[in-house]
Amino acid sequence: MRANGLDWRVLPCRQAIRTDPRLLEQMIRNLLSNAMKYTRKGRVLLGCRRRGEKLFIEIWDTGIGIPQGELRAIFDEFHQLDNPARESNRGPGLGLAIVQRLGNLLGHAVDVRSRAGRGSVFSIEVPIASTGRPILPKVIERAAEATAARAGSILIVEDDPEVRDVLELLLEAEGHRTAAAADGKEAIELVAHTDAQPDVVIIDFNLPGGMNGLQVLAQLRKMSGHNLHALVLTGDISSETIGKITQQGYVHRSKPITPKDLFGLIGSFLAERS
Predict the structure, then answer these.
(1) pLDDT tens-digit profile of 74-130?
(2) Residue 10: helix, strand or coil by DSSP?
(3) Residue 205 reports pLDDT greater than 90
(4) Phi-psi category of 249—alpha, beta or left, where left has phi over 0 and alpha has psi -120 to 50?
(5) Of 45, 54, 171, 243, which sits with the fewest C-beta atoms within 10 Å of its C-beta?
(6) Tens of pLDDT along 114-159?
(7) Who contacts 255 (Cβ-Cβ below 8 Å, separation ≥6)?
(8) How many CA atoms lie within 13 A of 69 on its CB side?
(9) Is the Cβ–Cβ distance between 124 and 27 less than 8 Å?
(10) How far apart are CA 149 and CA 273, in angstroms?
(11) Which residues contact residue 134 at a Cβ distance below 8 angstroms, ignoring those fewer than 6 apart?
(12) Which of 30-39, 178-187, 250-259 has the least mean pLDDT?
């Protein structure tokens, strides 16, 4: 099969593993997306290798490869190869950082080997299940218990689908419940048709559809009848825009926000809630 002009192959595997299927799927999707992004010709292959009681899920590509000095840095937030101008169509540069974060959460080691100009192999180490069916790893069960007490309901309003998906994934991996909307109208309808009000709103300042983030928050505040904890994200760092946000009593951050900063702010908002 060919995808984006590349030879795309999948080698099936029947092993049962211990994992969270949704989070592992997201890890594999991010690695495949990364392989497609940096492979201009040749092939991308998805397969598995068993070594003892471990299964290694591997993504092979014939892309541009990674210099040895950058093999660890590629997992840093916003690090991108071959994109010095930070072109927006190349995404926010969080794909591999999310893979690493999810791998740490699941207890699945992530590794990479590569040769510049020859291609790369990314692997995810997953324990094999002895019962013949996928089993949730204990680390996820413990993480779920630990996050239950500090989890909240978070509404994300963001028109960029990739940024929206990244925010959802990061927050859900931390145990939060999320709902997402692409513009103000959709966000207002979403809240109007649900019994549960969001504990926190994460919203882009510049939104399509005629309402900016502050105008949407004003409507949501009227609907909820109380002040909302909100984080306003913006690529517009003009003093006028920042002044409008702070005058309304909301916290603002410039895009892109780091997961560490995001989680810290969400935690402080939820602490005030309780």
Answers:
(1) 877 555 555 443 344 444 456 788 888 888 878 899 999 998 888 999 999 999 987
(2) strand
(3) yes
(4) left
(5) 243
(6) 988 889 999 999 999 876 555 555 545 544 454 454 688 999 999 9
(7) 163, 233, 234, 235
(8) 0
(9) yes
(10) 12
(11) 16, 17, 18, 19, 21
(12) 250-259
Separation of alpha carbons 167 and 182, rounded Å: 13
* Total Cβ atoms within 10 A of residue 108: 26
Amino acid at 24: L
DSSP symbol at 89: G
Angstrom distance (rounded) from CA 74 to CA 237:
27
225-236 in b/e form (b: 16+ CB < 10 A) is eeebbbbbbbee
Question: What is the average pLDDT across 158-171?
Answer: 84
- Which domains does the chain possess? 2-127 (3.30.565.10), 149-273 (3.40.50.2300)
First to last CA, the chain: 53
What's the confidence (pLDDT) of residue 6?
85
